[in-house]
Design goal:
- The complex is a heterodimer of chains A (667) and B (301).
- Chain A is α/β, with parallel strands linked by helices and 667 residues long.
- Chain A is built from 18 helices and 34 strands.
- In chain A, 28% of the residues lie in helices and 25% in strands.
- Chain A has a 5-stranded parallel beta sheet.
- In chain A, α2 crosses α3, α5 packs antiparallel against α18 and α6 runs parallel beside α15.
- The longest helix of chain A is centred in the N-terminal third of the chain and has 20 residues.
- The mean pLDDT of chain A is 94.
- Chain B has 301 residues and is of the alpha/beta class.
- In chain B, α1 links the parallel β1 and β2.
- In chain B, α11 packs across α13.
- The longest helix of chain B has 17 residues.
- The mean pLDDT of chain B is 92.
- Classes of the chains: A alpha/beta (667), B alpha/beta (301).
- Chains A and B meet through β24 of A and loops of B.
């Protein structure tokens, strides 16, 4: 005889505001098989959990239904509580009356009735639940880190220092990411390259890190603890073992006018190139789109001058497969480009540039060797207008969010300009100044007070060129909305930070969720900021939302700690919610007829054949067998099995049908 | 074969901007389109109504649409940018808001379907003129022109879904197809001062003065417009503009329909350019060979 306990949570007012919890508890107490039914304000709190535990002991309960929030939220909490009271955790079920009921309906009797229905279905299910034991699978203690910017670098070093293997995959020919493009960093104005490049070298040297640059993720399968990652190594047209990085090929390459991606188009590069002199690895790749040999079929100057004969024109893309226990997404961000702003003349006027291009102008290793010179004619600009929120916080442009980093880097840009061009005047048009980090507000005050940056609160309506000047028209909202017109020599747009190109495709390959702006979604915005909803896949840095360097590094170390924590166990405990082929007594042994329809449909290749033999070893019957280590419990085989011989543990036919019947049958 | 479409001229095209109406009718006839006026049409409400009384501002255009619907017009052309904007906005609002539609239906005593295709002058040209203009063009419009769109033709983009709000291109494309050289300039959608024309002519002088001066400074030989309000501010108010700018400004202002009419070889009377305050001293070259320019449909934002 079932003895079920029902525990109705008010969730503060989250549930009780629209659902009459006392009534639900009272009605549930009359369900057949329910021994105890109570309601409480916070069931997940310590006293709440104790109510569950005490009821189990006092009433010798055979099953528990906690009627509260989504099982995604607190199922583990209550299952642990049940286990502590000696009840098998799989005899505890969550009835979701918050997300599925109270949050989505108005306060009414119908809402309460729906909550009662939800509870009833789970009571019927839990009566049929069986005690299950978790399964354990071995963990491959290797992490694949995707993206070699500062987030990927930091996380790789942290994981590797913890003694685990790391495979770092970077799409570009060098690691370093956007941080390697920056001139100085706020709020300390220390040189970005000086703090980053030593770490890049550490990555290359670390015995636990394998670095694949110019490589992309081809496919990922498996699950937490045991992923199988296929990596495409794009052809560098180079034998890296032979290449010494001498650079002779780069000097002699006749194609010299390709706009450099690293220099944001302000500098030029050759067809065989390293993105920047401090690149890691410091070995070139051939850009086949622009290489004369690949276009016209002749040239091969690089092959002729190479002292070690390392050039390989016929090299093709190759693949490596890596077994990994965890994946870390650190693919970073990009800034909004193209002619998104016809009103600001971006893309039309050479001297209207974005923030990343200004970083290159200000960088000691940049195309102007750190002198601020405008792109059109190389003159030193006497007035620069910086426009904050170019695209950010602008629903008309499709981007409602604050890009977060622009207030600070714009203040930094204006400062750097003033430090380099003393007689110059920097103006900043802004909406609000958001300087909320440590020493950030002080930094902005310094820009205003010491470096005399002219902050104008208001939007710019238009930038146009007249007589060689860029006319910036805006409004000063602190001066009674007075129109302002500035004749500038250069305009820098703090264009919105957006998801890195290819993010959506990668998210779909990895089955991680992403938001409408293509940023990857964390599992919980507060309590699981570096986890994704897919177990074993973590994220760090600006691929989640635009972040500055301190935040990115903190997130990277956080994710690394999570991965190191996962790797601190030899075995991974998994819920046994997997498919099994039903067996029974001889002479049938199993209702499985051996049609093996389930084998080709299994997306995880978890099903093979099992022979049932008699004592003398003769084969009586061949049936399907499901490998518990590989099965993910998706249920595809259940749907395909004609003889209903496969069940998902915890969700078997009886249990699911009982739930449906409980909904359909009037009590 | 003669095509018939509905025509809503609005008040300006009956009065201060009758040359716009004349040129549009001339243009339509030249391309075998008969413009049939919406029977018993009324004021669209313009800016005044929606500043004073919200329901009136819906009911006035709604009645016009109801009359067009009654006359079984599926398409109407509305050359005035303000009328076009009001009619399109009201049809959009009524279509999505059942309660509002019911209220307005009660006032105008009609049952609106809200499915009339409302064309501005540029859309009319794109649909009925563009594909055939090359065969009928007699003169090359080989001038530098400044296309001035004003505010109402392209905004709000979400509703009108016509051209892009910043740096629009559709009129530039039309003028290019006539052989003109449209300049790249920043004041395409700058405010002309609009109704301030009456109460604060000095403000219009400053605002419109800047626009005209900018076009002239960049070497344009004519300003091309598609709105009677813009036209009267840029043309009729020219003395006030000159006073505000402190210089003589002689650049003429043409409706886009007039520009095409001129290229077709229509007389001053047919195009209505004899009615302008600023004389239109533009002589066009005979077209020797057909320019191989095909009018492209303007790309969306």
């Amino acid at each position: 005889m079932a003895r079920i306990g029902v525990f109705i949570c008010h969730c503060g007012e989250n549930i009780s505001a629209t659902v009459d919890c006392e009534k639900v508890a009272k009605v549930a107490s009359e369900f057949p098989g329910v021994t105890v039914s109570v309601d409480y304000k916070y069931m997940c709190s310590d006293p709440g959990q104790n109510m569950v535990k005490e009821a189990i002991l006092e009433h010798n309960l055979t099953g528990v239904v906690v009627s509260a929030c989504s099982p995604r939220m607190h199922e583990p909490t209550f299952r642990n509580a049940c286990a502590e009271a000696g009840l098998n955790p799989f005899l505890c079920e969550m009835a979701n009356i918050r997300e599925h009921c109270s949050w989505v309906h108005e306060k009414s009797d119908a809402t309460t009735d729906k909550a009662i229905d939800i509870v009833r279905t789970l009571v019927e299910k839990v009566k049929r639940n069986e005690a299950l034991a978790p399964i354990y699978v071995p963990i491959t203690k290797t992490a694949v880190v995707i993206g070699g910017g500062v987030a990927g670098i930091q996380a790789s070093l942290d994981i590797a220092d913890a003694g685990h293997k790391v495979v770092l995959v970077e799409r570009e020919p060098s690691i370093g990411g956007h941080m390697s493009q920056l001139s100085e960093t706020f709020p300390t104005l220390d040189c970005s390259q000086c703090i980053l490049t030593p770490r890049m070298v550490d990555v290359a040297r670390h015995p636990n890190i394998t670095l694949y640059t110019y490589a992309e993720i081809e496919s990922v399968d498996g699950s937490i603890g045991n992923f199988n990652v296929k990596i495409r190594l794009k052809s560098k047209s180079l034998d890296e073992k032979l290449c010494t990085g001498c650079g002779a090929c780069i000097q002699k390459c006749p194609v010299k006018k390709i706009p450099s991606e690293f220099e944001q188009g302000l500098g030029k590069r050759t067809a065989i190139y390293v993105p920047f002199p401090q690149a890691v690895p410091n070995k070139p790749v051939i850009d086949r789109v622009n290489c004369t040999y690949y276009i016209k079929g002749k040239c091969k100057v690089c092959e002729i001058v190479c002292p070690t004969k390392a050039i390989r024109f016929d090299q093709e893309d190759s693949f490596v497969e890596v077994q990994a226990g965890a994946l870390l997404l650190a693919t970073g961000f990009d800034v909004l480009k193209t002619n998104f702003f016809p009103e600001y003349g971006y893309g039309k006027y050479e001297d209207v540039i974005d923030g990343l291009a200004f970083e290159r102008l200000a960088s000691a290793s940049g195309p102007t060797k750190g002198e601020i010179r405008r792109p059109s004619d190389g003159e030193i600009p006497k007035k620069i207008v910086f426009i904050a929120c170019a695209g950010s916080r602008d629903p008309a442009k499709g981007i409602e969010y604050c890009s977060k980093i622009c207030c600070m880097y714009t203040a930094k840009h204006a400062m750097l300009y003033k430090h380099k061009v003393h007689e110059g005047t920097p103006y900043i048009f802004y909406m609000d100044i958001r300087a909320t980090g440590k020493m950030y507000e002080e930094f902005v005050r310094r820009a205003i007070e010491e470096d005399e940056v002219k902050y104008i609160r208001g939007r710019v309506s238009q930038v146009y060129e007249k007589n060689g000047k860029l006319i910036v028209r805006g409004v000063d909202t602190l001066l009674m909305g007075q129109p302002v017109e500035i004749e500038a020599d250069m305009v820098v747009l703090a264009t919105a930070g957006i998801a890195s190109p290819g993010s959506e495709e990668l998210a779909q390959k990895l089955h991680v969720s992403y938001d409408k702006h293509k940023f990857f979604s964390e599992a919980h915005p507060k309590l699981k900021p570096v986890e994704t909803n897919t177990a074993g896949i973590y994220l760090a840095g600006a691929c989640q939302s635009t972040k500055d360097i301190p935040e990115t590094v903190a997130a990277a170390s956080g994710a690394a700690a999570k991965i190191a924590g996962l790797f601190s166990n030899d075995l991974l405990k998994r819920d046994p919610l997997i498919a099994v082929v039903k067996k029974c007594a001889p002479p049938l042994y199993s209702s499985c007829t051996g049609c093996f329809m389930c084998i080709p449909v299994c997306p995880y290749q978890a099903i093979d054949k099992e022979e049932i033999k008699d004592r003398s070893g003769n084969i009586i019957k061949t049936i399907s067998h499901i490998n518990p280590g590989l099965c993910q419990g998706c249920g595809t085989c259940v749907a395909f099995c004609k003889s209903k011989s496969i069940d998902i543990l915890g969700y078997n036919h009886d249990q699911v049908c009982a739930e449906v019947e409980a909904l359909l049958n009037e009590w | 074969m003669q095509k018939k479409i509905g025509y809503y001229p609005g008040c300006s095209l009956e009065g201060s901007s009758r040359e716009y109406s004349e040129s549009v009718v001339t243009l339509a006839n030249a391309f075998d389109v008969e413009l049939v006026q919406v029977p018993d049409w009324n004021c669209c409400g313009a800016t005044a109504a929606h500043n004073l009384n919200s329901i009136l501002s819906f009911s006035l255009p709604a009645r016009i649409l109801a009359k067009a619907q009654e006359a079984e017009m599926d398409t109407i052309v509305v050359p005035c940018a303000a009328c076009y904007n009001r009619l399109t906005m009201v049809q959009h609002e009524l279509k999505k808001d059942d309660a509002l539609r019911a209220e307005v239906n009660g006032i105008i005593e009609a049952e609106l379907k809200c499915d009339i295709k409302i064309l501005n002058i540029v859309q009319f040209i794109q649909m009925f003129v563009a594909d055939f203009v090359a065969s009928k063009q007699q003169f090359l419009f080989d001038k530098k022109v400044a296309c001035y769109y004003g505010c109402l033709l392209v905004r709000p983009h979400d509703v009108l879904d016509f051209d892009r709000t910043e740096d629009p291109q559709s009129m530039d494309e039309v003028m290019k197809s006539l052989g003109a050289n449209p300049i790249d300039w920043p004041f395409k959608t700058e405010c002309c001062g609009a109704g301030m024309s009456v109460s604060r002519t000095d403000i219009v002088g400053r605002l419109s003065g800047r626009i005209v001066k900018e076009a002239a400074d960049r070497g344009a030989e004519a300003i091309i417009v598609a709105c009677p309000m813009c036209h009267s501010n840029l043309d009729m108010r020219r003395p006030a503009l000159e006073k505000a700018m402190g210089e003589k400004l002689t650049i003429p202002v043409l409706y886009i329909s007039q520009a095409i009419d001129m290229a077709l070889g229509k007389s001053q009377k047919e195009t209505g350019i004899n009615r302008h305050f600023v004389p239109v001293n533009i002589s066009l070259q005979n077209r020797v060979a057909a320019p191989q320019v095909v009018l492209e449909k303007t790309e969306e934002n």
